[in-house]
Amino acid sequence: MELLTATTNSWLNLPAHRHWLALQGQRLLEFAKASRIDNGFADLDNRGRPDLASGALTIQTARMTHSFALACLQGIPGSAAMVDHGLRALHGPLRDACHGGWYAGERAEPSSRKQAYLHAFVALAASSAVAAGRPDAAALLDDAVQILERHFWCEEEQAFLESYAQDWSDLERYRGGNSNMHGVEACLALADVCNDVKWLDRALAISERMIHQHAAAAGYLPVEHFDAQWQPLRDYNHDRPGDEFRPYGQTPGHAFEWARLLLHLEAARHRIGLANPSWLAEDAQRLFAAACQVGWTVDGQPGIVYTVDWQQRPVVAQRLHWTLAEAAAAAAALHQRTGDAGYEQWYREFWDYIDLYLIDREHGSWHHELDTCNRPAWTIWPGKPDLYHAYQATLLPTLPLAPSLATALARQAGLG
């Protein structure tokens, strides 16, 4: 496999564009600092005020810890203290000291479940903190890996299981595309930080099932919901089409995200001499093409719709910020992999949209949701809790496809 570099006239080669990305990243970090509260990190509202009523949430604490570990590796002042705060919360009040694993938050109901999605982010946060050299990060990483191995990774199914009751009873029969996608992301990071090739093999097994089998048979849009035998549940959440994590139908934004992850996986395996199937790069291109075709401006307005039905017609047409972040990052990755100028054009178009509609120059960060006329809306994503997607979108275009984000930044800083 020949890894091609971006063409000379690409924005990715222009110092001014890289500087602009860096400034956007720093602006996002400054806004996100307000999410720090006593026992971790909380959701932020549209003006950057923390939701003290809900308290510290584990998903936000993990994502903030990961993001500030990346900032720490970049040399952004104040970031190390944010990472250490997150590590203390994940070691302490957010962790289930009785049964192991992590609660959904400091005020989680006893009925709340332990989700693979959340635990993948704890592992990602711990691995990034280890790459950043933070004290106590290695112990958290060991704990997170043990939980993934003991409860979530299923060797027989070659995938991550979905969720349990807090005492690890009552395994959910549902199997999730979203949790396994972020499981692949965690696997890529763990392979680098733990120096263990099994995580790349697991990432490949998940990707083959989710993309080369199921997405390929469904128009190269990921299938999101499955039963315990990995049969698609096409009507799942038909009555809740705008669910934040398990929406009905298919999600173009996840096709972009998967396209990027397949290229990272291909590059990671190539880097250490592992065999790669040709479909990794081929399916990445097909996913991107399908997402653009069914998601971009399909209702006559700029932007990417949140979901489509099985006939690829828009269901929830709101524009969510994370879909644009992933679209831009996927375009950059595909341009880096193929050298195709068409991906450069998509990259520019996505960032032009982000600049025009999503960046909130009055109150900070990005609007997390827009309506069909590209005006701020709050029906699916209230407030601005998510640093992770937008911040990574400012970093990924400037880095190689492998190693994974934190390890790449550590090597850039001379730490790895």
TrEMBL record:
Keywords: Isomerase
Pfam families reported in the protein's UniProt record: GlcNAc_2-epim
Keyword Isomerase applies: yes
Signal peptide: none
Keyword Isomerase: yes
Gene Ontology molecular function: any one: isomerase activity
GO terms, biological process: carbohydrate metabolic process
Family named by the database record: Belongs to the N-acylglucosamine 2-epimerase family.
Protein name in UniProt: Sugar isomerase
Lineage, uppermost ranks: Bacteria, Pseudomonadati, Pseudomonadota, Gammaproteobacteria, Pseudomonadales
